[in-house]
């Protein structure tokens, strides 16, 4: 897989901003078939940083209703990447 196919987008929320400041952790939406080693290599290649730990989880899509119509959001995979001490990703500095 290509690095940009593995890392889909960063997840930017209040919780992820707190994780970034407190523990040097960054959260990404990743390809559902990617494993931890592929995610680690992709982050290191794209952002030119050293990764310490990658934790992944499957996020189930929520069921949504609009009147009689019931739908479901898609399932996705989330990766929480912890960087080595002293490393940082400048992409998130303005967010």
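Q: What amino acid sequence fits the structure above?
A:
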């Amino acid at each position: 897989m290509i690095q940009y196919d593995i890392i889909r987008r960063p997840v930017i929320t209040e919780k992820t901003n707190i994780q970034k400041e407190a523990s040097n952790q960054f959260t990404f939406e990743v390809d559902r078939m990617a494993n931890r080693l592929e995610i680690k290599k992709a982050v290191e290649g794209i952002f030119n940083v050293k990764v310490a730990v990658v934790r992944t989880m499957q996020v189930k899509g929520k069921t949504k209703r609009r009147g009689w119509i019931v739908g479901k959001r898609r399932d996705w995979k989330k990766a929480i990447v912890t960087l080595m001490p002293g490393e940082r990703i400048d992409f998130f500095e303005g967010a």
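Q: And what stands out in the fold?
A: The first strand starts at residue 7 and ends at 10.
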